[in-house]
Write a structure and sequence with these properties.
By secondary structure, the chain is an alpha/beta fold. Helix content is 27%, strand content 32%. The chain is built from eight helices and 15 strands. It is flat, with a radius of gyration of 25 Å. The chain starts with 6 loop residues before the first strand and ends in a 6-residue tail after the last strand. Bound molecules: adenosine-5'-triphosphate and magnesium ion.
């Protein structure tokens, strides 16, 4: 029997979100033994149980209050929301944090030789998709009448198989579309993975644990997006150098032994330094420029 006092989190068992979800938990200090076949994994060092399921099931598990938290692509979440609303339900959940992985877009694609001059070109067409509600919302806004053909996989072969005129599917690089003789003509939704919480009462213990996890996630994500930058700079060009550095309002300045004209500058930047910026810094007299990854941070 499961212990309801432990925080339950649903994540994708295997697929595009599972490795990064697992990595995020690990970086937050949650030790989980994820044996391949088990549906439920227990954290060893925190009162957390991880439920590993198909991604399509995660929004429903959160909306029905079966799990406390879930990591899910916004595309699947939004589709489930629209689908439940269409059935007269009023599903509830809370978005805790957009995550920094799982980026993709839901796009309309057509055969290379088909003409496309905006959504009106789709008037009365058949469109194959696994996301009928997101597609309908978009085309209703554009006042386009269409028929959707629901496919849960291999959507990209539908036009060639004569099942549809166009498709509406997830794209990240576009390579799959290209391999199937299709071209992306319109982006209807941009998605990332997100952390959601069920609606309703949460015990103080669970709420504290959620807050702690959120702070840690914030630290992990911020650290991944940040860089530690060190360089040596001529003291008389500091203003110009600082102006070139992203987010460098208050760098630390340290004296350099035996050199009165130069200082060492250390700073955390919210972005990485591009080669172009490094070349400009060098042209201003900076040297020994180092850009280092940050493992963790807490503000
Ligand atoms: P499951 O077996 O869990 O149902 P699935 O095959 O439905 O898995 P995946 O292909 O693993 O799903 O994708 C999961 C999520 O990853 C997508 O819903 C989307 O949010 C995100 N994603 C990121 N990039 C892509 C991409 N190029 N194609 C599809 N999904 C992507
Ligand atoms: Mg799925």
């Amino acid at each position: 029997m499961l212990d309801r006092t432990r925080l339950r989190i649903a994540m994708q068992k295997s697929g595009r979100l599972s490795d990064e979800s697992r990595e995020l938990f690990a970086r937050c200090g949650i030790k989980i033994n994820l044996q391949e076949q088990r549906l439920i994994a227990f954290a060893e060092n925190m009162p957390i149980d991880i439920l590993r399921v198909r991604d399509d099931d995660i929004p429903g598990l959160v909306m029905d209050g079966v799990v406390d938290l879930g990591i899910i692509g916004e595309n699947v979440l939004e589709e489930e929301l629209l689908s439940r609303r269409a059935q007269g339900e009023d599903p509830r959940y809370i978005t805790l944090r957009r995550l920094d992985f799982g980026g993709c877009r839901l796009s309309i694609a057509m055969p290379l030789d088909a003409e496309y001059q905006g959504p009106q070109s789709l008037q009365n067409s058949r469109i194959a998709t696994s996301y009928p509600h997101l597609l309908k919302r978009y085309l209703d806004e554009q006042k386009v009448r269409f028929k959707s053909c629901l496919l849960n996989g291999s959507v990209e072969v539908a036009p060639r198989a004569g099942l549809s005129d166009a498709i509406c599917d997830l794209v990240s690089t576009g390579a799959t579309l290209e391999a199937n003789g299709l071209r992306e003509v319109d982006v209807i939704y941009r998605s990332k993975a997100t952390l959601i919480q069920r609606d309703g009462e949460m015990s103080d213990e669970k709420q504290q644990l959620i807050n702690k996890m959120l702070t840690r996630m914030q630290g992990v994500i911020q650290a991944r997006e940040s860089k530690y930058i060190m360089l040596h700079a001529p003291s008389d060009r500091l203003d110009e150098i600082i102006a070139l550095l992203p987010g460098a309002e208050r760098p630390t300045l340290l004296p350099l032994a035996g050199d009165k004209n130069r200082v060492a500058m250390h700073m955390v930047s919210s972005e990485t330094l591009f080669w172009e910026t490094m070349e400009q810094l060098k042209a201003l007299g900076a040297s020994s420029i180092l850009v280092l990854p940050i493992e963790k941070m807490m503000e």
